[in-house]
Amino acid sequence: MTSHKLALILCLLIVFSGYGQEKDFTSNLYSTYGKYKEPSLDKRRIKHNEIQPLINKLSANPKFKVTVVGKSIEGRNLSLISIGTGATDVFLWSQMHGDEPTATQAIFDIFNFLTSGDFKTEKENILKNLKLHFLPMLNPDGAEVYQRRNTLGIDINRDALALQSPEGRTLKRVRDSLDADFGFNLHDQSTYYNAERTDKPATISYLAPAFNYEKDINEVRANAMKVIVYMNKIIQKYAPGQVGRYNDDFEPRAFGDNIQKWGTSAILIESGGYKSDPEKQEIRKLNYVSILSAIYSIANGNYKNIPISDYDKIPENDRKLFDLKLNNLTYNLLGKNYTLDVGIHQLEIDGTSNKTYYNSSRVVDQGDLSTYYGYETLEGKGFSMVGGKVYPKILASTKEVSQLKPLDLLRSGFTYVRVENIPKGENYVTFPINIIGKDYKVPEFKMRVGVIPNFILQEKGKPRYAVINGFLIDLKSGEGNFKNALILR
Ligand SMILES: [Zn+2]
């Protein structure tokens, strides 16, 4: 063997063992996740007063440097949490949209990982090569009322030029003072996004934003693309096919686009939907695993060898998902039968403190929906949609209704029960039949975009399925992913 060949083999061995180590690190992160998951942040509607005590704990830890770098309009602290001694700065910020908390939760999981005594070698490697800077929950006022915009009513992600919001100004100031090499811009997206032309939800979507209208690729943007290709491979392992790529049209007012322009390799991560994961805790785990793996790859420089041509191979994001899709139902209108597909969104309505929610569903499309997909789909050929009936007796309370066996009422074609006394402020019940007030007039059954989906699916003239507040219930087995029916006054 020539020394040339030997050198080549040695080189390959080093590259592959590095790759092997990274792979092991990633799968270990995945399998041990439960140990680091921050238990106090287990629901999406988290508030600033829940993360502040966790930040205070980090202040007391000499490994971290915690600085209040700004305040929201309502005066909540914006904290920058830094760790590491390396020459490469990595800046991560989350929740500039108040109702997009998944990555904020993952950041606190990452803090638990960093403060633990485990993964010593990998952590040493990360912290001697990098300085990590986290700014979790950039829009705490929005989070307080679980809304996208800040208290000024603006979208902070369109404030990168005007800089009218203290939150946006803080982000700009911190970016400039760090002049970070990498920036992770962490968001949530609608759960109705899918990977183009597939029924797979876009559980994670990526973008290396353009810095000009020409969508040029310089080294700064190319590095962001390489890290995205790396993270995509990881997500594919745990959620195959469930990754989307955002359209890279230049948006001159957005932070991601400008941060790329200002010289920080900007990586947008959007957490979308995942079947049967309404609180997005599996997605939070995927954030934790993929972000930490990306950080490790940046620390050891391995991402540099990734070809950017793989970036364009990630399928584009599309928005073609329904929570429930009913195919080929028979609908009778003015004595004639028509075939309709029906698409339903199970929308969330916040409780008064914005800490809880219930669902109030709507028909969002009907007709030929053959290019759309559902988290849940029913092949409805041979089923006729008919309106539900009102139970003939008026009951005293919702409690009495629950004692009636609502499933049996549905089997007899009833979808509403009238109740004498409905407690103030109550909007839903957790059993599968709608409650109506004394004077409520049930609208004539008409399938239309915008209506609340309440109807019976008959097979040969007999109730076979019920759709109550947009949730499908199998009347034979009694099964379904039912969450709540509505109280209508
Ligand atoms: Zn967002």
Automatic annotation (TrEMBL):
Pfam families: Peptidase_M14 (PF00246)
GO CC terms: extracellular space
Cofactor(s), by name: Zn(2+)
Biological processes per GO annotation: proteolysis
SUPFAM superfamilies hit by this protein: Zn-dependent exopeptidases
Keywords for this protein: Carboxypeptidase, Hydrolase, Metalloprotease, Protease, Zinc
Domain (Peptidase M14): residue spans on this chain: 44-298
Keyword Protease appears in the UniProt entry: yes
Active site: E251
Keyword Chaperone recorded: no
Annotated coiled-coil segments of the chain: none
Gene Ontology MF annotations: metallocarboxypeptidase activity; zinc ion binding
InterPro entries: Peptidase_M14
Family of the protein in this entry: Belongs to the peptidase M14 family.
Name of the protein in question: Zinc carboxypeptidase
Species of provenance: Arenibacter echinorum
Lineage, broadest ranks: Bacteria, Pseudomonadati, Bacteroidota, Flavobacteriia, Flavobacteriales
